[in-house]
Amino acid sequence: MSDQPLVSAIVSLYKAEKFIRAKLDDLLQQTLGPQLEIIIVNSGSPQNERAIIDEYLKNHTNIIYIETEERESIYAAWNRGIKSARGKYITNSNADDYLRVDALEIMANKLRMNPEVHLVYASQVLTNVPLQRFEDAYSRKNIIHAMPFDSMLLHYRCFIGSQPMWRASLHNEENIWFSEKYEIAGDYEFELRVAETHKFMHISQPLGTFYKAVDKSNRETVDLARTTKETEEILDLAIPRFLDAIPKADLHKYARRFRAFLHTPILFLYVLKRIDFLLTSPIYPRLIPYSIEFVYYMSGQLLYRMGEIQVAIKYLKRYLRYWQPRKIISLLAELESAYGKKE
After folding, report:
1. To 10 degrees, what angle do helices 292-306 and 326-339 make?
2. Contact present, 17 and 48 (Cβ < 8 Å)
3. Helix/strand/coil for 74
4. Residue 208, SS3 per DSSP
5. Strand, helix or coil at 66?
6. Distance, CA of 36 to CA of 10 (rounded, Å)
7. How distant is the alpha carbon of residue 201 from its chain centre?
8. Residue 33 CB-density burial (10 A; 0-12 exposed, 13-18 middle, 19+ buried)
9. Which residues have CB under 8 Å from 139's CB, separation 6+?
10. Rounded CA separation 121/166 (Å)
11. What does the pLDDT look like over 121-169, one tens digit per residue?
12. Assign residue 161 a region: left if phi > 0, alpha if psi is -120 to 50, beta otherwise?
C-alpha cells in the first residue's frame, strides 16, 4: 500500500482458527476497500491460524501479520498492533464479532466530520450463533441499544460496546495506551481515561454483532471474579479523578440529578426495576440507568466536595449498607471524626 490507510483494524488472535477466515472475509468486504488496513496479531496461538492467513497475505497487501512466540494479553496485543498501524483511525476487531458492510466507513465519516470527537461507538446486534454475519443476525428484538454518551453513566457501567473507533492521535500524539496490567477490562479503563479529556459520539444504529457464546466462553464471562475485581479497581481510581475534575458549578447539577432519583417513590422505582428485568436488558435501554447504591455513593462524594458534609455522611452510610470498600470506610471515619457523628 503506497497511500496511508484511513482506518487500521486490529485483530488479536488466540485459539481463533474457526473464526479467522470469516473474520477476514468480513473485513475485506467493508466499503472502505483499500482505505482499510488489517493488522493481525497472533499471540502465540496453538492453533493453525497462520495457514489460513497465508492464503490472504498472497492477495491482499493491506493485511499485516504479526506473530509472538508466547501468549500475551489482548491489550498487549492491541498495543503491539497499534504501534504498527498507519491508519488515521483505529478500531479493534474481535475475531468472533462481525460488521455491517459499511460500518467502518460510517464511523470514520463521523470522526472526520466531527474533529472535536475522539471516539465513536454504535449499537450492536446480539447473537448466540458462532460465525453469524451481521445481515443474518440482524433483528429488532436482538439489538443492544447503546446509551447516548454520558460521562457520569460511563463511571457506572461500560456501554461503549466491543466495536468502537477512535483517533490514532490518542496513541501517537498523546501517548494514551491500553494498560497491560488488565486481562479483561482494559478497554473500559482506556475509555474512562480518554473520556476525561475528550468527547465521545454515540451512533444509534446497529453496525455490528456481539457474539455471546452459549457456553459462556467469552473472556469476560469465563472468569467473572476477575472481571469484577478489575472493574472495581478501575473505577476505584477513575471515579475520584472524574469527580475532582468537575467544575464546582456542575457539582450542583449532578447532585440535583441524584436528589431527584432519591425522592422518587420507592414503589415506583421497584416497578421500573421489575420492568427492566422482564425486558432482559441490555437488549433494551435501561429505564433506570443507575443502581440505588451508586446514587448513594455519588451523592455522598458530590456533597462532600460541595461542603455539605453532614448530608454526605448520611448518604455514604447508606452506601455502606450495600458495599464496604476500605476507601469509603476510611473517608467516613475521617468525616465523622471532624464533623461529628450526627446523621
Report:
1. 40
2. yes
3. helix
4. strand
5. strand
6. 11
7. 13
8. exposed
9. 125
10. 9
11. 999 999 999 999 999 999 888 888 888 899 999 999 899 999 999 999 9
12. left
Nearest to 293 by CA among 271, 268, 266, 323: 323
The amino acid sitting at 23 is K
Report residue 99 CA to chain centroid gap.
Answer: 17
Contact 325, 236 (CB under 8 A): yes
Angstrom distance (rounded) from CA 197 to CA 195:
5
Query: Nearest-CA neighbor of 282 among 197, 195, 192, 220?
Result: 220
pLDDT class of 340 with cuts at 50, 70, 90: low
pLDDT tens for 290-314 read 778 888 899 999 999 999 999 999 9
Please report, for residues 6, 25, 108, 282, 331, the alpha-carbon distance to residue 113 in angstroms, rounded to integers and kept in the order given.
14, 28, 9, 30, 45
Sign of CA dihedral 326, 301, 176, 205: positive
DSSP string, 182-204: -SSSHHHHHHHHHHTTSEEEEEE
One-letter amino acid at 20 equals I
Query: Residue 334 has what pLDDT?
Result: 85
16 alpha carbon, distance to own chain's centre:
22
The residue type of 75 is Y
